[in-house]
Amino acid sequence: MGGKSLSNTTLVLLIGLAVFALVPVLKTTNYQMLLAAHVLVWGLFAVSFNMLFGVTGMLSFGQALYYGMGAYSVGLCVKYLGAAWFFPGMLLGIVLAALFAWLLGHLIIRVSGVFFTMLTLAFGQLGWQVMFKWYSFTGGDDGVQNIIPPGIFANKVVYYYLLLALVGASLWFMGRLNASPMGLILRCVRQNPERVRFLGRRVRRNQQRIYMISSLFTALAGGLMSGVDYSIHTDMFYWTTSGHVILMSILGGIGQFFGPFLGAAVIIVIEDVVGAFTEYWSLIIGLVMLGMVLGLPHGLMGGIDRLKARFAGSGARPARDGRS
To answer: Which of 89, 123, 233, 251 could form a disulfide with 263 if both were Cys (CB 3.0 to 4.6 A apart)?
Structure first.
């Protein structure tokens, strides 16, 4: 991705941030702002996962481990040390996730394909078991409640704008990374790791780096979510949370930078709108995914690109006809 693509990414990001910034101004209920906050957090989670799978080709079913790690670092710090530890707890969660991902990545990137996927699933489920069984410390399946940010950030609008700023900065950083030489190497690793080794690049080291980077942004998403919902629960560690973000990425378009964010927005809105009328919203999402596989195999962003190419082609035809 060159400079032009980077500028396009930045432009789309700025427009998106401007739209989300208007939500507190235009909202008619606080729930609309809560819904937008959920889209932002899940969008960050999905884009960070896409850096791992869509760019590098490493399918992890254990990213919920880092999502939960970020959330529980905040929740447990607030529970045992007080509300003033909300943001230090968030930073602690990011650091712990980065360190754990670096160490775990050093182990699991020695294998690839389905073996890598199963190892991430195993470690993720191990983390869920620990948090679920350690009731005296984590609260078990009761989770932790009343996780309220300190000071002015207890105001939902103020916290929303902080959330928007952090998500925007994170997306900007990942966009820069995606457009950097490292991003190019990672895409080459996905397509032909042996050739990358032949060219003298360290494949495992780059895989370990992106695994760590993806995990720390996932932990940030978890920490931010604890301040959105004011509560956390052990399901945040469960493999279905990882599966949820994989569906978002596939729906939006694997490998497309903003595709997973778009997929997250669509699924969150479907869950909210359809869930208000029926408890079978998961069936609706399943039907949407089936339609996507059949009609738009490259996701929503792939469909948008096809439409843009079609309109560009139809706009060029009259000029060609005029010259003939």
So the answer is: 251
Architecture of domain 3-315: Orthogonal Bundle (1.10)
Predicted pLDDT at 1: 43
Establish how many alpha carbons lie within 13 A of residue 38's alpha carbon, considering only the half-sphere containing its beta carbon: 19
Residue 91 one-letter amino acid: L
The answer to whether 247 and 289 are in contact (CB under 8 A) is: yes
Q: Do residues 39 and 268 lie in contact, with contact meaning Cβ atoms separated by under 8 Å?
A: yes
The segments of the chain whose pLDDT lies below 70 read 1-7, 313-324
Secondary structure element (H or E) that encloses residue 261, with its range: helix 259-275
Q: Give 76-107 pLDDT, tens digit per residue.
A: 999 999 999 999 999 999 999 999 999 999 99
Query: Can you give the residue ranges of every domain in the chain?
Result: 3-315
**C-alpha closest to that of 59 among 129, 116, 14, 139:** 116
DSSP state of 149: -
Question: Residue 130's CB: how many other CB atoms inside 10 A?
Answer: 13
Q: What is the 3-state secondary structure (H, E, C) of 154-192?
A: HCHHHHHHHHHHHHHHHHHHHHHHHHCHHHHHHHHHHHC
For the chain, the C-alpha Rg in angstroms (whole number) is 21
pLDDT of residue 7: 63
- 144: helix, coil or strand? strand
SS3 (DSSP) at 58: coil
Whole-model pTM: value is 0.90
